[in-house]
Amino acid sequence: YQLDGINFLLRAWHKGNSLILADEMGLGKTIQTITFLQYLFHNYSFKGPMLVCVPLSTMAAWQKEFSQWAAEMNTVTYLGDAKSRAIVRDYECENENGELNFNVLLTSYEMISRDKDFFQDIIWSNIVVDEAHRLKSDDSLLYKELVKMESHHRLLLTGTPLQNNLKELWCLLNYLQLADVASWETFEEEYGTPEDQASGYQKLHLLLKPYIIRRLKKDV
After folding, report:
1. For residue 160, which phi and psi values (nearest 5 degrees)?
2. How many CB atoms lie within 10 A of CB 135?
3. What is the CA radius of gyration of the chain?
4. Angle of helix 59-69 relative to helix 29-43, nearest 10 degrees?
5. Taking a C-beta distance cutoff of 8 angstroms, is the pair 181, 45 a contact?
6. Distinct helix (H) and strand (E) counts, the chain
7. What are 76's strand-pairing partners?
């Protein structure tokens, strides 16, 4: 099932689609994501820059898995106080000619907000956001900063179902910049009208199919 997940990510990549990997917690979203990024690294001429934004509590786990599954990729962890981050920017992120020399930048939500100018100044090949259900409100600071960052592809990871909340789902899809997803008002009108909810949900599932993959432990 993990290979199926990676193939799903790669098919979406080839079609130019950003997407959501929504496997239940414990099914290896981290490994699938790192393998996906490593595949791109090995099979395409570009080598990044890729941004992986995770909660501070899972940072050590991500570092461990990157070193185990993608040791040949130059993964830089962007954390610490202001002085430490300045050193990382000056000596680990760029060479003496001012060119980026990392493949993956691993950072936390807090750093995105604190050093937004640095992150928004880079055009990212990929942006990965772990525990992306935190982006379920377009009013949140993290959402506002992430949406300003330019990238060719976006991947959201969440093991938390969105409890049939249409606005929260729209926020995630809107962040992915999908051509099929219109403004919130249009989206609500098309998929959330109470008098025709069954038909709305059916249409919604058809819309989501190319952009979301979710497996449960009981199924795998």
Report:
1. -100, 115
2. 21
3. 18
4. 40
5. no
6. 10, 7
7. 105
Distance CA 132, CA 29 (A): 12
Task: Find out whether 39 and 92 touch, Cβ atoms under 8 Å.
Answer: no
Residue 132: DSSP 8-state: G
In angstroms, the CA 217 to CA 59 distance is: 24
Residues 6+ apart with CB under 8 A from 138: 144, 147, 171, 174
pLDDT in tens, 6-16: 999 999 999 99
Least Cα distance to 78 among 94, 65, 98 occurs for 94
What is the spatial distance between Cα 138 and Cα 141, in angstroms, rounded to a whole number? 8
164: confidence class by pLDDT, cuts 50, 70, 90: low
- Gap between the Cα atoms of 29 and 217, Å rounded: 13
Residues in a beta bridge with 19: 155
The sign of the CA dihedral 192, 193, 195, 196 is negative
pTM: 0.92
| 178 φ/ψ angles, rounded to the nearest 5 degrees | -80, 135
Per-residue pLDDT tens for 57-94?
999 999 999 999 999 999 999 999 999 999 999 999 98
Task: Classify residue 96 by burial, with Cβ atoms within 10 Å: 0-12, 13-18, 19+.
Answer: exposed
Place of tokens 């490593």: 38
3-state secondary structure (DSSP) of residue 48: coil
Alpha-carbon distance 18 to 82, whole Å?
Answer: 32
With tokens 């525990």, the residue in question is 131
**∠ Cα 10 40 213 (to 5°):** 25
